[in-house]
Amino acid sequence: MDQYIGLDVSIKETAISIRQGGKRIWRGKCASDPQLLAAMIRKRAPEARRVVFETGPLSVWFYHALTAEGMPAICIDARHAKAALDMAANKTDANDADGLAHLAEIGFYREVRVRASTAC
Question: Taking Cα atoms as reference points, which of 38, 34, 35 lies closest to residue 9?
Fold first, then answer.
């Protein structure tokens, strides 16, 4: 069964949420290192269909590093995600990751084109 991952990325730590069949099956945190995150995703969600995170300062690096690791990375528009995530009663990194995973699962997101990492 397909699994959907939401990542709430920050400089030091990334909150991770994994959903399957309409329910959260795992959530946790990991250092904000795409290789460590890819290893964690392979371990916890071997059938990952989408790995979703918002645009931000690290998004270009994350996108290219995760896709190089074979992850189905999708960068979504932060303003679009914010509108959906602001409806949550308790705003935390873990809950934002849950919300992003839910958006990935239902397909309600606006994917952005990520520029090449060598472009200025």
Answer: 34
Residue 22 makes CB contacts below 8 A (sequence gap 6+) with 105
How many Cα atoms sit within 13 Å of 59 on the Cβ side?
A: 18
Instruction: Give yes or no for a contact between 30 and 74, defined as CB atoms under 8 angstroms apart.
Output: no
Residue 120 pLDDT: 47
pTM for this predicted structure: 0.91
Residues whose CB falls within 8 Å of the CB of residue 46, separated by 6 or more in sequence, listed in order: 3
Counting Cβ atoms within 10 Å, is residue 51 exposed (0-12), middle (13-18) or buried (19+)? buried
pLDDT digits (tens, 9 = 90+) for 1-17: 899 999 999 999 999 99
Helix (DSSP H) and strand (DSSP E) numbers for the chain: 4, 5
Q: In sequence order, which ranges of the chain are alpha helices (DSSP H)?
A: 34-44, 59-68, 78-85, 93-106
Q: Which two tokens stand for residue 67?
A: 């896709």
Q: Residues of the chain whose pLDDT is less than 50?
A: 120
